[in-house]
Amino acid sequence: MRARTIATGGIAAMAGGLHRTVRWSDGAVRVQLRRHSEYVDCRGGGLVLVPSVMSSWGCMVVTEPPAQPTLFYPARGVTAGWARDAADLADALGALLGPARAGILLHAHIARTTSQVAADAGIAASTASHHLTVLRDAGLITSSREGSRMLHLRSPLGEALVGAAL
Questions:
Q1: Which of 28, 102, 162, 163 lies 20 to 30 Å from 140, alpha-carbon distance?
Q2: Of 161, 150, 162, which Cα lies nearest the Cα of 116?
Q3: How do the pLDDT tens digits run along the chain, 166 residues long?
Q4: What separation, in Å, do the N-terminal and C-terminal C-alpha atoms of the chain show?
Q5: DSSP 8-state assignment for residue 82
Q6: DSSP 83
Q7: What residues contact residue 46 under an 8 Å CB cut-off, 6+ apart?
């Protein structure tokens, strides 16, 4: 289907047909995400297109090296039976990451300090710091210093992991 669209309408038509937030411009795919627009340069390295039943709400992009640029887009023909509610996702992530780390990751959609993460999770600051380190080492969150505070936020990979519930 995608190859036929490229053959008949070009790459711009194929990219525009993936989702309303995707377009082709100047040799790159541009994806409008919830918080920012992602520019995916396709020259040289290519772009992996992944239809996903976990992204019915929109697209997700992984552009951080060493991963090859990847665009996850909603698969066509997905029924409501594939959809998962937030509680189901929290349970599944809890089984994968442990309940504390899953909760931290699910609530990392806004930048928070280690103390705020600890208070929200009902755990000691040292325990929150340990969990944040594990999530950061796995590439699921990013941490940045703002003055004397360290702020933690989901990374694009973390967004892709929890995207189905958002």
A1: 28
A2: 150
A3: 677 877 888 878 888 888 788 888 877 777 877 666 666 766 666 788 888 876 656 788 887 777 778 888 877 755 444 455 667 777 888 888 899 999 999 998 889 999 999 999 999 999 999 999 999 999 999 999 988 999 999 988 888 788 644 4
A4: 28
A5: G
A6: -
A7: 68, 69
pTM above 0.85, yes or no: no
State residue 40 phi and psi, 5-degree precision. Answer: -115, 100
Instruction: Look at the chain and count its residues.
Output: 166
Report CA-CA distances (Å) from 125 to 108, 113, 120, 129, 166.
16, 10, 11, 6, 27
Query: How many CB atoms are located within 10 Å of the residue 108 CB?
Result: 22
Helix axes 114-121, 125-137, angle to 10 degrees: 110
The Cα angle at residue 157 between residues 155 and 159, in degrees rounded to 5: 70
Residue 40 one-letter amino acid: V
Strand ranges for the chain from DSSP E: 22-25, 28-32, 37-41, 48-52, 60-62, 70-74, 112-113, 141-146, 149-154
Query: Which of 154, 163, 162, 149 lies closest to 136 in space, CA to CA?
Result: 154
Q: Cα torsion at 28, 31, 36, 42 (round to 10°)?
A: -30
